[in-house]
């Protein structure tokens, strides 16, 4: 009898790209965010990062200094969409909201998803080496034969072999670099590791909504916003 082999179905594809923001602009934008943070700290708890959207800064794309960054990000989002096998020229893209997060030493962002949009991203404006990466999680892994089997704890307990960690683990870690963007479906559960350094980790996030350019004959996907009727 010969060994069988697996065909892996339905992968989650997370897109990574260097954005190439000019260094002086990257420093200037970092300063702007850190000034916003100091002006209005978010009073949650010591472990939680500062969230710009919860502090009245949820439309960063309207801030003129951020214009060149959002142009570069828009290009990355279209590359991501094209890479997934979707034709960007058939869609309209909208930044729906955008905000910064600041994670100081020991701070993190707990698990959540952005259920009101289609595409989300994190762009790392300032990212120290040990500044804390990003975790992606899945609530019901298709290979998880019994609930709780494919967890980090079961891996640490030795119940999972390296193959189990590869095919079934329900939380994966990525370590982004400064000036890198990570793009993913908004519905994906994600969280961050704590910043282990004294330099603040500063990231920019946004939620992106897609509509069809021409919705004639389509039952699914959003029609163009210009055709909606507000009441
Ligand atoms: Fe998020």
Overview of this structure, please?
This protein is of the alpha+beta class. It folds into two domains: about 15-125 and about 175-185 and about 195-210, q2cbj1_9rhob like domain (Jelly Rolls); about 135-175, no CATH class. The chain has four helices and nine strands, in the order βαβαβββααββββ. The strands form two sheets. It has a six-stranded antiparallel β-sheet, with helices on one face. Strands 6-5-8 form a three-stranded antiparallel β-sheet, with no helix packed on it. The longest helix is centred in the N-terminal third of the chain and has 17 residues, at about 25-40. The protein is globular. The N and C termini lie far apart (about 70 Å). The mean pLDDT is about 95. The structure holds fe (ii) ion. Fe (ii) ion binds near residues 112, 114, 190 and 205.
Strand order of the largest sheet: 1-7-4-9-3-2
- Tally the beta strands: 9
Assembly state: single chain
DSSP helix fraction? 10-25%
The outline comes out as globular
Beginning-to-end CA distance, first to last residue:
68 Å
CATH fold-type name of the largest domain: Jelly Rolls
The run of helices and strands is: EHEHEEEHHEEEE
Radius of gyration, Cα only, in angstroms?
20 Å
- Summed up, the helix count is 4
Layout: helices, strands, pairs:
Elements: E1 15-18, H1 23-39, E2 50-51, H2 67-83, E3 91-103, E4 119-126, E5 134-137, H3 152-156, H4 162-167, E6 171-174, E7 180-185, E8 189-192, E9 201-212
Antiparallel strand pairs: 1-7, 2-3, 3-9, 4-7, 4-9, 5-6, 5-8
Bound molecules: fe (ii) ion (FE2).
């Amino acid at each position: 009898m010969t060994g069988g082999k697996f065909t892996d179905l339905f992968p989650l594809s997370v897109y990574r790209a260097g954005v190439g923001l000019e260094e002086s602009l990257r420093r200037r934008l970092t300063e702007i965010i850190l000034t916003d943070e100091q002006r209005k700290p978010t009073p949650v708890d010591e472990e939680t990062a500062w969230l710009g959207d919860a502090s009245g800064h949820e439309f960063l794309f309207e801030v003129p200094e951020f214009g060149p960054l959002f142009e570069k990000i828009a290009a990355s989002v279209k590359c991501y969409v094209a890479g997934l096998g979707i034709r960007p020229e058939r869609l309209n893209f909208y930044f729906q909201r955008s905000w910064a997060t600041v994670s100081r030493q020991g701070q993190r962002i707990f698990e959540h998803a952005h259920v009101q949009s289609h595409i989300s991203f994190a762009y790392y404006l300032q990212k120290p080496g040990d500044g804390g990466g990003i975790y992606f999680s899945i609530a019901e892994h298709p290979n998880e034969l019994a609930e709780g089997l494919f967890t980090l704890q079961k891996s640490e307990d030795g119940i999972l072999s390296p193959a189990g960690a590869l095919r079934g683990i329900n939380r994966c870690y990525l370590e982004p670099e400064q000036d890198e963007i990570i793009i993913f479906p908004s519905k994906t559960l994600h969280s961050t590791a704590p910043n282990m350094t004294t330099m603040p980790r500063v990231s920019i996030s946004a939620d992106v909504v897609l509509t069809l350019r021409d919705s004639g004959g389509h039952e699914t996907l959003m029609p163009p916003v210009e055709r909606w009727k507000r009441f």
